[in-house]
Amino acid sequence: MLALHAENIIKYYGDRLILDISDIKIYSEDRVGLIGTNGCGKTTLLDIITGKIQPDEGEVHINTTWSYVTQLGNSGMEEYLSGGEVTKAKVFDAVASSPSLLIADEPTANLDSDALAVTENLFKRIKGALIIVSHDRAFLDALCNKIFRLDNGKITEFHGNYSSYAKQIELDRTTRINEYDRFIAEKTHLEGAVFGMARSEKRIKKTPKRMGNSEARLHKRSSTEIKKHLARQRKGLQTRLDKLDEKEKPKDPHTLKIYHQGVKLPVSRAAMSLDIPMLKAGGKILVRNALLTIPTGAKIALTGANGSGKTTLLSYVYKNGEGVRIAPGSRVAFFSQKLDSVEDNLSLLDNVLNSSTIDRGIVRTALASMLFTRTDIDKPVSILSGGERVKLQLACALLSGADFLVLDEVTNYLDIRAIDALEQLMHKFPGTILYVSHDRRLVENTADRIYEIKNMGLVDFTYLSQTEDKTDTDSILLNMRLSELASFLERGDISDEQMEKAQAEYDSLADIKRKTR
Fold it and tell me: Edge-to-edge, what's the strand order for the sheet holding 299-304?
């Protein structure tokens, strides 16, 4: 059964062509993963399919019941629910009616591992068709039997899940590279042969003046025959060269890079310390007795179930609430998962300049490295996709000169290469980062220490990869804890009991370190 048919869809934003799609057909057995880079038009296409916005040209026909899980936005639920809880509520609401076509835009955003598993199972139970926008490769692998790639406004269809698509893309690229290399080799060979024949023709000497008539006739006849033979060969080679199918050199994918403004680190060994007896939101107790010291330059991940208080705690830290001690001279920048830290009516460039003191030209270069075009950066933020908005808000934080970044779900809506670029940035950033992310790979690859909000407590918790050298890992964690304790003991606002307990732990760990050298 044909569940959805879209024809001749054209959509512009200003003078920018976003969509130019001749035909899309979704059948009842299709489970489609819609992929593409940030800003390519995925959400726009879903909004057109569901009638939220109208195309400039074209028609959409849905022949069955459907539901639409939109991206996190102004739904009215954000005031009393966390981002993950909002996403779960939207998913449950959408599947409750058992639609024959479920359309979902980033349905894994903000979800913890348990909620992600529940969402995956709910989607598997849908009897009809699925259209899913997601950058979660495992999620797409588990659910999809087709991949639609949106690129330069066009849709290309691939059969299989995301891993199958990735293999097809790699095979296609390898084939095109090999074909191009063979083309260049053949072209170079033929050009060289044609040039060599032409040189050989020119080198055939004329009849010497002192040569007798009979000898001259023989020489001339021989030279003429050789020249004709060479000319025939040269023309044949030239014909082969002219008929050689031109091959375009495969383009390298655009590399996305994320830069930061140079930062000045505080003198203090501790970037921040927490001593919060109780943290509440809306009358609900989220965390009790939160004690934490973050060494300057550390990368600290905060995990926990949806609604456990991660966002509330990060916001409390950024606002320098009671019990929060930020190192003197430190500058803090906050990335909000609600993506409300930028102004819609201002251009991309002006948003960054409002939070930065660096030269306009450098800001332009930094935005270009994040794949914002020269014309894009002068346009209002209101036209950006979710992923582009994430990149812009991240640029505002990184180009502000802040040495302490507080990042709440920064990987939401980012495409895969943007997440890779973010990971590289986090490794290179000399300052301190406190962040929340449900992207386990990012956490494993970047976090020096991981804390989990569990049962209203702040628990030290670290992912240990089975392939790691445990001795090296233990050494790193030991040094981190010694640094934390040293910073804690430097404080003048702790009780004698806390001082005695911390000193005892410090001495014990220092003794272990000496014995294991």
Answer: 332-335, 404-408, 432-436, 299-304, 449-454, 457-460
